[in-house]
UniProtKB/TrEMBL annotation:
Matches recorded under SUPFAM superfamilies: Periplasmic binding protein-like II
Coiled-coil intervals: none
Keywords: Signal, Transport
Subcellular location: Cell envelope
Pfam families: SBP_bac_8
Protein name per the record: Extracellular solute-binding protein
Lineage, uppermost ranks: Bacteria, Bacillati, Actinomycetota, Actinomycetes, Kitasatosporales
Domain of life: Bacteria
């Protein structure tokens, strides 16, 4: 799964839900020491961990301003299920840390950016004490703009870089173009910014690039973000049992599908298949490797990978997959309307859609109920899940920025990283009461102006430790946190978990064609044998040499997996 696949977890959905779902893992395991070498950039290749990383990481000081209703467990987010009392909001930033300077920020934006000087931007800048000027760019083509800007001499004060855009020359550009924040944040220095000190260590670990602490992170839970979402109301009405194995899912799918009645069991279930069969994560290159009996093995070399593809192929062959997915239309279309209409009953998607689908159907379809299936082991046993990385979006500061600019950026981040239940969180995620949102019965609701102004801007600078809170649907918040906790109990960290690794450029595009081939195999356009041949070609074209490179990295630095 690639994060920019249109059929996958939507970036816009992810960011639009940041106000409600921000994810990170508590605790922290330091990572790799600088691994130099390699003809593709010297010390720019490799990663940082161990003793070297410990010296760079900010001290972790858990926040105590707000107490969650559901504590974190097994890598889950914390949860809030109580109503929101505006009169009881806490203050996490008692005084402005900004010194009134101007800071330009380039960031991806999905939708139509609000006008400069809008009420939200003015209120935030006044709260922080910094004049933030946004250079919002189309999130769908952000990689192109990012590459052009980083190749130029005109780099804004702050540039936001999502993990899915860290391809090609971007990682090296990050190391060459952005400032070392260590002097301001490493060790006890971070205590000047308490909300940044409360960001989990693992997320900071991911912010080390080229041996320096360069990024301000948007933390993420290490529990998989792909959930098999299903129409719980229809399951209950029809008497369907929630499957607990791949065979049970196939039985349900055949029973539920009735093409004449325009009902199919599911969409493309490939990502759930990968989880059910215990396939290593494919959302970042380094997570695709794991050490088994002293040898590094890539996800595409495993039997589990082929078995997951074969099971998904059988779903398509059995005719239980909605025609949109069979034709590939689901790659471009929003599945929501047909899911709401009951044309299919299960689909795997980004965690955030559990809440967003609930909210959008609450008025027009009160019987509608979406829920998340627990991921099953393919044979009916416990699943073997693999941890995701604990941060995926970063803000970087121009290496030529003055100390006053850096301090102003950190002042911004200290406000945007405020925890749920604080005045700063509400300001960052909802805007100005009365103008951008109203509150009735403890539920904040954005106004029309709020939906225009308060979008994915300030949340991109830095975020708090993982939090799930839906005052409008507290049962969904509880369900999401408890789902993470159950799945987290079956989640392991692969060999290179949490490491910010820059691969040598000569292997950057080595695996580019595999996602398309996967989709061709499961739709019957290609055969499993074609995939096996592709894996053989991958090995000879550089896969085995890349394995050697990762093995050297591991031998020199060890693993951060716990």
């Amino acid at each position: 799964m690639t994060p920019n696949a249109a059929s996958g977890p939507s970036r816009r959905n992810f960011l639009a839900s940041t106000a409600a779902v921000t994810a990170a893992v508590a605790g922290g395991v330091p990572l790799l020491s600088a691994c130099g070498g390699g003809s593709d950039g010297g010390s720019r290749d490799g990663t940082t961990s161990g003793k070297d990383a410990k010296e760079l990481l900010p001290a972790y000081v858990a926040g105590n301003v707000v107490t969650p209703d559901i504590p974190s467990k097994n890598g889950s987010a914390v949860g809030f299920t109580s109503k929101l009392d505006l009169a009881d909001l806490k203050t996490s930033v008692p005084k402005k840390l900004g010194k009134g300077g101007k800071v330009t920020v380039m960031s991806p934006f999905w939708g139509s950016p609000p006008k400069d000087g809008n009420a939200y931007y003015k209120a935030m800048n006044d709260l922080i004490g910094v004049d933030v000027v946004w250079q919002n760019q189309d999130g769908n083509t952000y990689d192109q703009k990012l590459g052009a800007v980083l190749a130029s001499s005109e780099v804004p004060d702050v540039v936001v870089v999502p993990g899915w855009n860290m391809t090609g020359k971007i990682p090296s550009a990050i190391i060459g173009k952005f400032a070392d924040l260590g002097p301001y944040l490493s060790g006890d220095a971070v205590k000047e910014y308490p909300n940044l000190a409360a960001i989990p260590t693992d997320a900071w670990q991911r912010s080390i690039f080229g041996g320096k602490l360069r990024g301000l992170p948007m933390p993420a839970s290490y529990v998989t973000g792909i959930v098999p979402l299903y129409r719980q109301d229809i399951f209950e009405k029809e008497g369907y049992e929630v499957p607990s194995s791949c065979d049970e899912f196939m039985t349900f799918a055949k029973e539920a599908t009735n093409a004449k009645a325009k009902r199919w069991a599911c969409l493309d279930m490939k990502w759930t298949a990968f989880n059910a069969f215990g396939v290593l994560s494919g959302n970042e290159k380094s997570l695709g490797w794991n050490e088994v009996d002293g040898k590094l093995v890539h996800r595409i070399e495993t039997e589990e990978y082929l078995e997951a593809l074969e099971w998904t192929r059988k779903l398509f062959a059995a005719g239980v997959v909605h025609p949109d997915a069979r034709l590939g239309k689901s790659n471009a279309a929003d599945p929501g309307p047909k899911f709401a209409a009951g044309e299919f009953l299960v689909y795997n998607q980004d965690f955030s859609q559990w809440w967003s689908r609930t909210a959008e159907q609450a008025v027009q379809n009160p019987e509608f109920k979406i829920w998340g299936m627990d991921i099953w082991g393919h044979d009916g046993g416990a699943p073997k899940l693999w941890a995701q990385n604990p941060a995926g979006i970063f803000a970087f500061v121009n290496k030529d920025a003055s100390e006053s600019v850096i301090r102003d950026v950190l002042a911004v981040a200290n406000v945007t990283a405020a925890p749920y239940g604080t005045k700063e969180y509400m300001a960052t995620n909802y805007g100005v009461e009365g103008t951008h949102y109203t509150v009735e019965d403890g539920v904040p609701t954005k106004t029309e102006q709020g939906n225009i102004d308060v979008m994915n801007a300030y949340v991109m600078i830095a975020s708090p430790a993982p939090t799930i809170a839906h005052p409008d649907f507290p049962e969904v918040a509880r369900g999401q946190v408890e789902w993470q906790q159950r799945m987290g109990a079956h989640t392991k960290k692969s060999t290179f978990y949490g490491m910010q690794i820059v691969e040598p450029a000569r292997w950057t595009n080595l695996s580019n064609d595999f996602e398309q081939l996967e989709d061709d195999v499961i739709r019957g356009r290609k055969k499993i044998g074609d995939m096996q041949q592709a894996v053989s070609d991958w090995r000879s074209k550089g896969g085995d040499k890349l394995r050697d490179w990762y093995k050297k990295l591991l031998d020199e630095n060890g693993t951060a997996a716990g």
